[in-house]
Design brief:
The complex is a heterodimer. Chain A is 47% helix and 0% strand. Chain B is mostly helical. In chain B, β1 and β2 form a beta hairpin. In chain B, α3 packs across α9 and α3 runs antiparallel to α13. Chain B starts with 5 loop residues before the first helix and ends in a 16-residue tail after the last helix. The chains are: A mainly alpha, B mainly alpha.
Chain lengths: 68, 513
């Protein structure tokens, strides 16, 4: 039979850090704009590229925080 | 097309010769007994963090991606950039879900998602559904890798009339088939290192030199029509392009690691920790993917689409010719050779892993389950080697004889099909709550409805879901997996009440270190 406690096993509050990027990146109207541009690159492009780096850092933080 | 670009071609051929040697030599790398399926088909589960990085990177960021994402940007503009948030959100999913799958598969010596579902739910028909979905979804993907190869070969001026024109593709295919057969997963793992170095070099050189030639990013974006720079703002009573963008991102991200080639890459890692580390390290490739998406806009700005010397290429390959034309326009011939070799080798790595993954699935979950229940290790490995050949041959025949458009449509359907395994595989690593027959019904309905929706909109990715005056255009795969999940939840108590014994070969402790 299913074990109700199974899902909880290994849960960490640090995982909530990984949720941030889902909310911000799926909220498309928040970044579908030209300004502020950076080095001639519209906001839409550099903002999403910046999130590549932020998300990698967040995942690394969660990795080290939950390392057994 | 114009004359053959000899400098580029010679460099291309030399790099191909090098990776051919590497592919065969790979059999001796961390040598194992290649007469065992987990040695041939998972590299003996011996790849550490670094090799896993190259392997999954080589697997997920394919030649088709490098051609198709900029081609979409070239044709449709900003919507193509969905590939970036998509390739960001795949990693939290990889981090949270797939180390659990790695652990349970390692513990029980599972090689495929089908093996896992068979053990978790004890239902051979649900396992068959997951297996067939995987094989059918990955086949058009292999075919599209060959399209990537076709485009760069054509761009170097190698062309012929009739079937002679397909000769270079056939040669590349024979090389691919031979080293995959003899070395198994070790071949793409070693070649992926070369591929990634070449691709990275190309992307960085392109993103630095082309804007300098063009006089800066400001001038490039000014030369792109404003309608292509941003997403169209939705009108009244619709979520418009915003909804399409967000559902494409989330739907594609949920589907990606369920593809058989992704799971093969994950399961070949030497530890769950190597998988988790890679969730933080793999975004390095996403950055490069973003740079390549920008190339589509660069191609608009340089105006290669209107230059007479590239007209024949665009006529033959459509927007897929955007990046090759941009490279031909902006780089000296010798660097074009390197860039095209990067794309060409970038086709062979995922094509090899995909054919291995399909072979593992057929061998384990169809042949062993339904035809020969007690094969020896050697028979099992031999069967997989043959299947990997048949799968690739099928892809080659498809590309030579069937219009590319069908492969693209099938690949789109593949995304709709593979996402239907989210409840049984992705949620299955967390809970055994679902009834296996409820999962099977959800899968069947999701697959059928999704296919019908895609056909009804003539294979556009987005379906305009309408209710009471509101239109919510969104990615078909995303809508249908919700339908699938709702059915699985509602039907689980119903099927449970009808009785039947719930079996599970795994226990909670199998899912973590």
């Amino acid at each position: 039979m299913a074990q109700p406690s199974e899902r909880r096993a290994g849960w960490s509050w640090w995982y909530l850090l990984l949720v941030i990027q889902f909310i911000l990146l799926l909220w498309v109207p928040s970044y579908n704009k030209l300004e502020p541009s950076w080095a001639g690159i519209p906001f839409f492009y550099w903002y999403q590229m910046l999130w590549v780096i932020i998300s990698a850092v967040l995942t690394a933080i969660v990795y080290f925080a939950t390392e057994d | 097309m114009a004359d053959v670009n000899w400098t580029a071609l010679i460099i291309f051929v030399l790099l191909f010769a090098f990776i051919t040697w590497l592919g065969f030599a790979a059999a001796k790398w961390r040598a194992g007994d290649l007469d065992q399926l987990h040695e041939w088909g998972l590299g003996g589960r011996r790849f550490g963090t670094l090799i896993t990085w190259f392997l999954i990177g080589g697997d997920v960021y394919t030649a088709y991606t490098f051609i198709a994402v900029p081609a979409l940007a070239f044709g449709a503009g900003a919507i193509a950039f969905f590939a970036v948030p998509y390739a960001i959100l795949i990693y939290p999913i990889l981090f949270l879900v797939f180390p659990r799958l790695w652990h349970v598969c390692h513990k029980h010596k599972y090689i495929t998602a089908g093996d896992f579902v068979r053990g978790r739910y004890g239902n051979r028909w649900l396992a068959l559904a997951v297996t067939v979905t995987g094989i059918v979804a990955v086949m058009p993907y292999i075919a599209l890798q060959l399209v990537g190869l076709q485009v760069v070969i054509g761009a170097m001026g190698v062309s012929g009339t009739g079937y002679a024109g397909d000769l270079p593709l056939v040669i590349a295919f024979i090389i691919l088939a031979a080293f995959t057969y003899s070395s198994g997963l070790r071949a793409p793992a070693s070649i992926a290192i070369v591929k990634d170095i070449l691709i990275y070099t190309t992307a960085f050189v392109a993103v630095i030199t082309i804007p300098i030639q063009m006089g800066g990013f400001g001038k490039i974006f000014a030369a792109v029509p404003p309608a292509k720079v941003l997403l169209a703002v939705p009108g009244a009573n619709t979520t418009g392009s915003y909804g399409v963008y967000a559902t494409l991102v989330l739907g594609s991200a949920l589907a990606l690691f369920l593809y058989p080639h992704s799971i093969t890459g994950i399961l070949s890692a030497s530890s769950g920790r190597a998988v988790r580390r890679n969730a933080a390290l793999l975004p390095g490739y996403t950055f490069m993917l973003g740079l390549l998406a920008l190339m589509g806009l660069f191609a608009i700005a340089t105006g290669v689409g209107t230059l007479p010397e590239y007209a024949a290429g665009f006529k033959q390959f459509g927007n897929s010719f955007a990046v090759p034309a941009l490279f031909l326009h902006s780089f000296p011939s010798w660097f074009v050779g390197i860039a095209f070799a990067a794309v060409g080798i970038g086709a062979l790595v995922p094509a090899a892993i995909m054919s291995i993954a399909a072979a593992n699935l057929y061998t384990r979950n169809i042949h062993r389950e339904f035809i020969n229940k007690n094969p020896t290790d050697k028979q099992e490995a031999q069967m997989a080697k043959w299947v990997s050949l048949i799968v690739k041959l099928g892809a080659l025949v498809f590309i030579i004889f069937v219009p590319t458009q069908y492969a693209i449509q099938l690949q789109l359907l593949g995304g709709i099909w593979i996402i239907q395994t989210v409840p049984s595989v992705m949620l299955g690593v967390f809970t055994r709550w679902f009834n296996d027959w409820a999962l099977l019904v959800g899968w069947a309905v999701g697959t059928c409805v999704g296919t019908a929706m895609a056909v009804s909109v003539n294979f556009a990715a987005a379906y305009p879901l309408a209710f009471s005056g509101y239109t919510l255009p969104g990615y078909t795969a995303f809508y249908t997996v919700i339908l699938n999940l709702v059915l699985a939840i509602v039907l689980t108590p119903v099927f449970n009440a009808m009785g039947g014994k719930q079996v599970d070969a795994t226990v909670a402790a199998d899912y973590h270190a």
